[in-house]
Every structure is written in C-alpha cells, then in structure tokens.
Amino acid sequence: MTNKERIEFLYKEDGIRNATFLDTLLHDDFILEWDSSEGKLLLQKSAIINLANELKQNYIDSFMEISHFIEQENQIVVKYNHKVTTIENPKEFVLIAKIVAIWEFEEGKIKKGYQISKPN
Fold it and tell me: Are the C-beta atoms of residues 47 and 22 closer than 8 Å to each other?
C-alpha cells in the first residue's frame, strides 16, 4: 500500500475510527501537533488510538468530505470536512469540524502530523 492509499483509507474508508488500522499506520514515535478549539495539543500514538475508540463509541457513522489532497515526497496534505451521524439521528450527517492536516511518512508509517481544526 502506498502512502496515498493509506491516507485514502484513513479518510475514505473510515480508518480514522479503526484502532487496529491506526496502530499499523502510525509510527511508534508518532506525534501530532494539533491546533484545536482547546488550544495547541501534542498527541502521541496512544492518544490517537483512544480518540478513534471514542469516535467509534460516540457516532454511528463518520464521513470525510475531502476538498484538497496534495502529495509531495513523504508528505500528504488533506483539507476536509468531518461529518458524523449521531445515535439520536442516524440518517443525517452533521458537520462537526473543518480540518487541514499534514502527514509526514517515514518507512511507510506516519511519523509526524500537523493539524488545524475548526469546530462547526
């Protein structure tokens, strides 16, 4: 699987809520710098896997509406809207965040991530 295919699976196949997939995708020394509504966060691999499990428990379905996908050498940039369905309303996707992420790969795994999100 190429780096592009890995990121496409992450976003297009709901890999963001798949802890097993994330465990294979993220480097053991992975770090994410995330500018979020809570401020600047530094998250390691275990925190991302925990977040995936929370997303899986809290939402019925998840959908990434990708508007930009740029690949250059070992980096991929993705701009997307994250939409989910809730337990109360499983048939309607609701926008929960607008996100731009930059992923840096090393040896077929994501080693670093930079993300900016804006809640809806």
Answer: no
Sheet of 26-36: strand order equals 39-44, 26-36, 109-119, 94-106, 75-85, 61-72
pLDDT for the residue 107: 93
How many other C-beta atoms lie within 10 A of the C-beta of residue 54?
A: 11
Does the pTM of the predicted model rise above 0.70?
yes
Distances (CA, A) of 24 to 19, 36, 82, 114: 9, 25, 22, 19
What is the Cα–Cα distance from 30 to 35, expressed in whole angstroms? Answer: 17
Residues of the chain with pLDDT under 70: none
